[in-house]
Amino acid sequence: MPASPSTRLTVRVGLAWSPFDRESVPGPGFWRAVEAMEELGYDSLWLSDTATRPGPSPLPVLAAVAARTERLKIGTSVLVAPPRQAVLLAKELATIDVLSGGRFLPAFGLGIDAPVELAALGVAREERAARLEEAVEVVRLLWSGEPVSYAGRFTTLEGFELTPRPVRPRIEIWLGGASAPALRRVGRIADGWLASFVSPETFGAGVAAIRAAAAEAGRTIDEDHYGTIVFAAAGRDDLLPLGDFYTTLASGLREDDHVAVGVAALRPLLQRFRDQGATKFVVVPIARRLVPFLHELKREVVDPFELTA
User: Fold this and answer.
1) Cα 133 to Cα 84: distance, rounded to the nearest angstrom
2) Measured between alpha carbons, how far is 10 from 224 in angstroms, rounded to an integer?
3) Above 90 in pLDDT, residue 33?
4) Cα torsion at 85, 45, 286, 198 (round to 10°)?
5) What local confidence, expressed as pLDDT, does residue 248 receive?
6) Under CATH, what is the fold of the domain 12-308?
7) Where are the beta strands (DSSP E) in the chain?
8) Mean pLDDT of all residues in the chain?
9) What φ, ψ does residue 279 adopt, rounded to 5°?
10) What is the pLDDT of residue 182?
11) pTM above 0.90, yes or no
12) Per-residue pLDDT averaged across 50-64, rounded?
């Protein structure tokens, strides 16, 4: 179901470091890319989170990015919340927000539903949703700045007051996921939705489901709080190194529904999602010569799209 906003919404395009990159991060190539993102005026940088698959742990890397940038927002796409103790999570994320001067954008999720990942993290599949929801509640309470007493299934607090607190009075927490329970959860407790590996049409149906769940819970989600992750490859050959890992994650999804091959293909893909209600975009750039590709994307696609979408 397409969105039908009554006023112009803020459209922003950020970037993600490729979760398929098997190179050491942060390394020289990573920092050259971060410097380019900052200088070119990209909205944000996002890092994904898995324990057993390639890619760095997002929180220490984002803390380092916060220290080396002044304007670039930083986010998690998405942070696996269930195995993390909620109080430590609240403190770590608040610390990153302080380091960044209030530029942190947290998005949480259940994590990938793979046997090796679940075994490594030690969280029973049937507990993941409950742990995620409790983490969202506890983190929000601790970020409020008030002493917190709380008796939950996994967390107990007695008059505990968190320091440091985030820079902003209230940080919004977005959630990922595209299953029916995940969409209902977004509607019930989240501030926004960050989708991944969905087609534009599936995204639109997800927005409608979230709106319905939010209405049933007596709440609303801002119309510009719906986002998605898409991929942009400089050319066909740039996709080849992704191999089986990417193919497994994208199983059953048409490539042209979430991957733009060539700069010219990105804006039509973004527009298809925009027509279905998306206003926030996280583009995963895949290119052997990444920094020139970032320049081209910003000039040819991102600037005109943010201006007119």
Assistant:
1) 12
2) 6
3) yes
4) 60
5) 61
6) TIM Barrel (3.20.20)
7) 12-16, 44-47, 73-76, 79-80, 104-105, 107-109, 148-151, 156-160, 174-175, 192-195, 226-233, 259-261, 280-286
8) 93
9) -125, -15
10) 98
11) yes
12) 92
CA distances from 115 to 49, 76, 130, 143 (A): 16, 23, 19, 33
According to the model, what pLDDT value does residue 26 have?
74
SS3 state of residue 193: strand
Amino acid identity for residue 85 in this structure: Q
Condensed to tens digits (0 to 9), the pLDDT of residues 82-124 reads 999 999 999 999 999 999 999 999 999 999 988 999 999 999 9
* CA angle, residues 197, 200, 203, in degrees to nearest 5: 70
* Ranges 11-25, 26-40, 202-216: which has the least confidence: 11-25
Cβ-contact 281, 12 below 8 angstroms: yes
Burial call 4-43: b when 16+ CB within 10 Å, e when fewer: eeeeebebbbbbbbbbbbeeebbeeebeebbebbbebebb
Q: Report helix angle 263-275 to 200-216, nearest 10.
A: 30
**Type of residue numbered 282:** V
Rounded to whole angstroms, the Cα distance separating 55 from 105 reads 19
DSSP class of residue 25? S
Q: Residues 6 or more apart from 144 whose CB is under 8 A from it?
A: 170
Q: Give the number of residues written for the chain.
A: 309
DSSP, collapsed to helix, strand or coil, labels residue 138 as: helix
For the chain, how far is it from start to end, CA to CA, in angstroms?
18
What is the rounded CA–CA span in Å between residue 93 and residue 236? 37
How crowded is residue 80: how many other Cβ atoms within 10 Å of its Cβ?
23
- Of the listed ranges 165-169, 171-175, 189-193, 265-269, the least confidently predicted one is 165-169
Q: Are 155 and 88 in contact (CB under 8 A)?
A: no
Query: Percentage of the chain surpassing pLDDT 90?
Result: 85
